[in-house]
Amino acid sequence: MTARVLEHPPAEEIRLEEVLHALADPARLEIVRFLAAAGGEVPCSAIDLAVSKSTTTHHYRVLREAGVISQVYRGTSKLNGLRRADLDRLFPGLLDSVVNALLSDGRGRRADTGPATPPTP
Amino acid sequence: MTARVLEHPPAEEIRLEEVLHALADPARLEIVRFLAAAGGEVPCSAIDLAVSKSTTTHHYRVLREAGVISQVYRGTSKLNGLRRADLDRLFPGLLDSVVNALLSDGRGRRADTGPATPPTP
User: Fold this and answer.
1) What does the pLDDT read at residue B109?
2) How far apart are CA A102 and CA A106, in angstroms?
3) Residue of B10, B86, B117 lying closest to A86 (CB–CB)
4) Closest approach of chain A CAs to the CA of B14, in angstroms?
């Protein structure tokens, strides 16, 4: 029996704009938030995204292909984890700032952390 | 004479995923890198994006509508600036991490900051 292996970009091919694109989606941010809170490898089934299975698979693939997460098969399930070491080395502070923003507003959809200020002109 | 005023989202309507989406493009990252390096207001004409004028206008609009930059008319030109105070308050560390990644690799397109490491499993 041959284990299926999913393709991951090597660290030197991870690009900032692709990481940002992968993060720029509420469902994918929820995956990242969950994985950051879990701190380890998590099966897809542990994260309820309230979207279809094929859409869920798509979101994980976008994250994996951008270099944000790793995915490995264990039997019939995929285990997911953040590529924190690679991301922290390539883009110091980026993942932490995103995760902290997600955790601080509890939803990751909107940051209501203070009174409105007009845009600086 | 009525000054044209461009719409900006108030700070409380700035959303993380929209900021990330606005940043997830090489041309828009170049605008952000340039504005961060300039540290003040800069006319569009100062930043050479090597794309058409209408595409350039589109990129600035995406950044403005996401809350990343402010744009104000001065005569016939638009002056652009980062909304650093709002972004730093809403998403601490995010803008700095992106700008530092852009400045450290000199191009903002790829991060070649060390030897390749295989993805963590």
Assistant:
1) 43
2) 6
3) B117
4) 7
